[in-house]
Amino acid sequence: MTTQTLAGFAAKHVRLRTDGAVATITLNRPDRKNPLTFDSYAELLALFRTAAEDDTVMAIVITGADGNFSSGGDVFEIIAPLLHKDTKGLLAFTTMTGNLVKAMRACPQPIVAAIDGVCAGAGAILAMASDLRIGTARAKIAFLFNRVGLAGCDMGACAMLPRIVGQGRAAELLFTGRTLGGEEAERWGFLNRLAEPDALHVEAAALAASLASGPGFANAMTKRMLEMEWAMGVPEAIDAEAVAQALAMTTADFRRAYEAFAAKRRPVFKGD
Asked: Is the domain of 220 the same as that of 197?
């Protein structure tokens, strides 16, 4: 049985490009500020599940086309149809959207979000679910669920956002739905750093390429432990990290790093 790779994935509702060990996913409905639809949700879920099995891709960039990240769920293609669904249908939808975040967190590759312009609702969730975020000063990040009569507890926001910006700040964003500008988002730690709009995608690609050139197994283990250790006490986390690091020490990349150091040259990692 042949495992599908991202290079062979026929994306129809988002734009997908692979460049060496880096895959770039672009939300691509710029006329509407790149909203999400039932189809694009399903395709993104399939993409990240495919990424989890693809050992040729070592880092992923997710971004939006033409100056905006994503305006969230499409009002007419998602919100309106949801008004006509019964409880079972609604739960099927919210479970599917949550599964997308689970797939992003479960795929071993570091995910870099490149955020410009509008990044709202489910778009803000996709940014939150990424591992690293580069944005512009003109980015407008808003978890605006309460503004459409919904709870802020959507797709893991109440669990994940406090881990990124702190409990009080997360509560403010989820209760008020207010917009977080790019500079404030960087100060709060939601954005790892700011970039000029015309350099955003170059910087995100460079960061992803740098991560992709690193020790792939070790990076995947770091991502897994960052996820798992929130549910652990410190002693349990230390024990878990002992196992994780011992596994990393069995990799060829660990040996390559030693041999390169001894030879006074830079290591070339291969992910094994």
From this structure: no
**CA 145, 149, 155, 156 torsion-angle sign:** positive
Kindly state the tokens that stand for 253: 């990349």
Tell me, what's the pLDDT at 4?
A: 82
The answer for residues whose C-beta is within 8 angstroms of residue 145's C-beta and 6 or more apart is 121, 151, 152, 154, 157, 174, 177
The answer to whether residues 142 and 222 belong to one domain is no
**In sequence order, what are the residues at sequence separation of 6 or more whose Cβ sits closer than 8 angstroms to the Cβ of residue 2?**
none
Sheet with 59-64: list strands edge to edge. Answer: 15-19, 22-27, 59-64, 111-115, 132-135, 193-194
Predicted confidence (pLDDT) per residue in 206-242, tens digit: 999 999 999 999 999 999 999 999 899 989 999 999 9
The domain in which residue 238 lies consists of 216-262
Name the domain count of the chain. 2
Tens digit of each residue's pLDDT (9 = 90 or more) over 88-119: 999 999 999 999 999 999 999 999 999 999 99
Give the model confidence (pLDDT) of 31-57 as tens digits: 999 999 999 999 999 999 999 999 999
Residues 93 and 203 reside in one and the same domain: yes
71 and 90 Cβ atoms separated by less than 8 Å: no
- Tokens 């599917």 belong to which residue? 96
Cα separation of 166 and 177, whole Å?
16
Q: Nearest to residue 207, comparing CAs of 260, 135, 120?
A: 135
Task: Round to whole Å and give the CA distance between 209 and 206.
Answer: 5
Helix (H) or strand (E) holding 158: helix 157-165
d(CA 47, CA 5): 9
Looking at per-residue pLDDT, the higher value among 232 and 3 belongs to: 232
